[in-house]
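Re: your question from the hallway

Yes, I did run it. Sequences:
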Amino acid sequence: MTGGGRVVGLYVHPIKGLSPQPLTSVALRAGGGVPHDREFALARPDGRYEPGRRVGLPKGEFYTLVDEHRLAGLETHLDVAADVLTVRVAGHEVLSAHLERDRDEVLRFFARVLDLPEGVLPVPARDGGRRFTDVSRRGDEPMNWISLLNLASVRDLAGRAGVDAIDPRRFRANVLLDGLPAWSELDLADREFTLGGVRLRGTSRTVRCAATEVDPGSGRRDLPVLRLLKQHLGHEMMGVYARVLSDGVLEVGDGFSGGGAVDGEAVGDEAVGGGLVGSGSGGGGSVG
Amino acid sequence: MRPLAVASSGAVPVAVGPLADLRLVVADRTDLTPAVRRFALRRPDGGPLPGYEPGAHVTVTTPAGHQRSYSLVEPGGEAPDEYVVCVLREPAGRGGSASMHDEALVGAELTVGEPRNRFPLHPAKRYLFVAGGIGITPIRSMVARLRAEGHADARVVYLTRTAAETPFLDEFGDDTVHHSAERGRLDLWPHLAVPDDETRVYCCGPLPLIRAVQAMTAHWRPSRVHVEEFAAPADGFAAPFTAVWAPTGRRVEVPADRSLLTALRRSGVTVDSSCEAGTCGTCRLALLDGEAEHRDFALTDDERRASLISCVSRAASEEITVGPPG
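Structure:
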């Protein structure tokens, strides 16, 4: 599966459920994730999260797009160096606050957006070194997996479903790939490949959740992505997780090569609809 | 399903509900603008009609047989003697507005459903009303009620193309009335920049206006922002209903924009889930009473008789009783 595959986008989501932030390059380390990805989350005050917890929790313990689609109507940016969160609404800045020093202001802002009762605040979750990725509950090693999305698969789904386009930001991936056959990323589970100079190993196909139904721009639930996947592909997977095997800098434009035993054949519909579901290491926790 | 009020003409088809139909006559028709005509509907004997509150609508069967929902423009009350609706003639429409304009003559008898209200006026210290074009109709009923009651803080932003195309223009002399043909589009941001929990925002108008108000209130409490949605999203949420949780008898209100699953969880009921999109079946519940509107991709027809998938399915009746999966 060598050839035209390459990295066309890199994203970090410093705060779970909030806006993706584009990167031009990212320094990866073996066994590590995208720096700062999902290192902050807003936990439910009546839930199981406690500061300092070292074990992953299911996403239902946090405020995410699955339940709180309006969060996608906020354009957020965390300056990870300064620890300053900026929120814009319809292009206008409505919050600029330091995550620690202005913590109350930040929490009150989100309590309002989440319509929490008077006096109730979300719980800020940030525990050095931990990530609130959806796969974190599978263990500390999966917690650091990076997520890959194949734009050809996204386009193929849109074509089959007869919709104009599906915004890839719905899938909240770290790495966007293009130039590969549609759905070939699902075959990367259990296979080694390289992106630029970084070696990775596919670990798990990504079973999607209803957060993908939310339009990233408007924060409206407007497209039944899971239902379309099930109807047109017979599964609910899009993208793949991978473990980083070597240190290196990943850049937009880096080429894809490898893929182990697969030699460049496109994965046909039959294979996708039949053989892939439930085979290999596909499955696992459903994620947004 | 919300009375898809006023796409542009003031109406689109809606399902008929269980409420009784009335036979009313057109008592008066007046042109408010070249394209908007006002119809007063009364009982043939002139007797009192079922009451309604501001924001209510009625479903009218036009002389040509279309069913259209129109907001009632008067402030309402317990036993009004007429229902007043305003209809924008829509040349590109499917004939409902043309039938009303051309065929609903004074004296004509029309079938009219009892008023329903899916856009109710909630108590608040302050109000901001944003109306676009014919979307003024429910807003006018609300503002008329509030001002009649002496409510001091009800601001109105009324957007139309020209003064000549502005129904009820003289009633909004002290408000922000903006004509786009003269001054371009109004920037709503100054009105919405600062969220205020004590202010309720009501918006009715064309879809782009509703979307703009929704986008500009993303930092507000969602419960303070009320919009008259013209069409239920194809796979989105629809009417609110009540769910009774059988083990405790607890009654849980499920608002239009929340799933049954989310509403149950918010009230302390534990329900397992996984995909939350109606495909995996994890959040199946027993359906013990009432009728469900099944929207899942998990259950067979047989299974649907006694269960439902709580992340997507809703009630077809006003109330359903559910319990843990059997």
